[in-house]
Amino acid sequence: MVFDSCLLNGRPDPADPGVVRLGHPALDDYLELVAARARPNTLIATAYDLKVFFSQIRKDPAEVTTVDVLAFIKMQRSPCIDAKVVRLEDGEAGLSARTIKRRLASIRGLFNFLVVRGDVRANPVPQGLAARRPGQRAIRQVPLIRTPRTLPRVLEPGEVSAFLAALRTRRDRAMAEAMLLGGLRRCEVLGLRLGDLRPGEHRVFIAEGKGGHQRIVPVSARFFATVADYLATERPQTNTTDRLFVVLKGPRRGQPLSASGLDEIVTGARDRAGIIRLTCHQLRHTCLTRLREAGMALEALQAQAGHRSIESTRIYLHLAGGWLAEEYRRAMEAIDAQTVQER
Question: Based on C-alpha coordinates, what's the Rg of the chain?
Answer without folding.
Answer: 24
